[in-house]
Amino acid sequence: MTTWYIQHEGQAIGPVDAEGARKLYQAGGLGHGTLVCRVGGKAWTSASSDAELLVILRGRSVATPLIEKTLLVPPPPASTDWDVRKTATAHRAMLLLLLASLPLQIVFIMIAGGGRHSELAILIPGLACFALSVGMIMFACRALSAMRVDVGLIVVSSILLLAPCIGLITLLVISQVIQGKLRSVGLTCGLLGVPKDKLSAAGY
User: Fold this and answer.
1) Strands (DSSP E) found in the chain
2) CB count in 10 Å sphere of residue 19
3) pTM
4) Helix, strand, or coil here: 5?
């Protein structure tokens, strides 16, 4: 029996058989221009270019074909004009550095506020915080670059990230933008972004 992956509301659903495709069509979730991919296929095509789905779209019954043994594999990733994997990995690295920097910043504030410590005791956590901040900026710029964001906007973002007061807010805004972009191709972002195994499972 032929089954398909069907793109619906920005996500690949399936595998869906002929009956499931008919129900999706009746609910308005499947049209002539909907992107579909047969299980085991390598590319997304419009539903109207698939002979069996075209019968469903024309409102006629579908003859049940001979049962085929098909290896269930993840659907191919939706075509994009930006590097999904590079964006996701840079975003995850940025979030991991942010998580690592938070306790260091607390330690730095406590030491600096104490007043009875040597300059070296203040300098070491300060340098560590600075190094992590530079790393976060680099990965943020890498993610934005992979998303094909305008160079001018990347430069402005980098400057804002260096600002002591609004750097964290800027970083969180950038993270939200990246997560929205990743969700648009069907990826689910957790607290620390998208793990590599989920990227691979999605075909990226």
Assistant:
1) 4-8, 11-16, 35-38, 45-46
2) 12
3) 0.58
4) strand
